[in-house]
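Action item from last week, closing it out:
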Amino acid sequence: MKLIFSVLVALLTVAVHCEEKPKPFLSRILRHKGSVLLFNFQPSINDIPVYKINDLHVTFDYTGQGITKNSKGLFLHHIGTGRVYKWRGDAQAGEWIRIDSTFFTGYNFLSLFFSKDSSLYSYGGVGFWQQNGHLRKYNFSANEWKALQLSKSIPWLRKSREIFFVDTTKAVLYFNGQGRFHDALMNDNKLDSSTFDKLYMIDLEKGEVKELGNYQSEKGGFFGQTPWGTITDFYKLADFRNNQYYSLSEMVQNNLFRILAKSSRNHYNWQYTFWLDSALYFTNSKFDYDSVVIHSSDLIKTNIPLYTPIEVKTNQKPFSNNLLLIIVSILVGGINIFLIIKYFKQKRTIQNTSTDQLMYESNLLQNNRIKLSEIETNLLRVIFENSVLKKMTEIAEINNTLGCGNKNIDVQKRLRSDAINALNEKLSLSFLTDHKFVERKRSAFDGRSFEYYIDQQYFNAIQQLLNNSTSS
């Protein structure tokens, strides 16, 4: 009898020892009754794993762990391994239990893990020298992943400037095309860029992939998902359903900047972002969490489309000769009237033209010396936002912003140099200083290459400049 009692005590001790206290953000999510979509905030940065898996080699500790909560519970997917774990417990204590029987292959690193209703999905990724456009769904009966049949395959992976939105109400995944730039079987001079700068959607239930239109990749990345769309930078939100951008209210912009750039707790390496109870949360497995409350009233219409829809060509019937003659007559008459009015207007004001024109050109010259072009503004925003997040801006990202990613190396180098030099000159002129705002240093991975950044002391000045550029 004593032996049986000792065994029971030992088993109870082991069971209690296996349980752990969930991370603060997981405890917050477990207390919520509904589903919660979590996304890796910075997939390219080495993340400390939420759950240490002892039977995986240490090199896989930093491949990332996707987390999501749906109607079946809280799940963790170790990216690149196919492994799926379910939380058994509550908001106070519990343990991660492996539920899959996947044989590790390691071909879906930097993939997107998410859920809808009771289903778990994984999209895209890279591995075995090739990136893919596969949509995988977890089979709870077979305890393994199943690749779903799609109408077409669009290669995609998580990186610093990607954009996506999981619409759980319509069972749709939106994402931007990236081209096929991770394929060792393709010649460097023949990389596939056919999907670059385009926006796509996948019907998760039907498997239909549709190209929506052209999208400018330098316009932003992924800051977090809200019910209305994806926040792409400190200033705007992309509404995929209605194809439009919203500007964020000044209060939301300031709060985002506070959390991502000025946090007194030095939260530069936020690991996850999720939406819960009218707020966008940012968290890290080592720290607590912080949040920004956002209401629909914080969204300001800009009348700027997210993408340019594909034009559908239709067969048009030719105009009749009489109708064409009428249109031409109206146009000719309108041009004649315009020229007559312009002639008399110029004649009345010719006396004052010289003085007014000189003053106008002088003011125009002064303003243009410190006015950034659209490309320069986009380039400054990319380097600034990366610098705020303590990330260096790579050459490839600058090439994409300048639109020279497919040109030869010499052209890329010249365009980068010209753009950054011009940007530094205009910034120096704007702030009346001879300091260089955009600096560079050699890459830690390749000493032959440079990476670019903006020093933290200039953050406030650059933010104000970009705010003025956005409002104008």
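Closing note: Residues 9-17, 349-369 have pLDDT under 50 and may be disordered.
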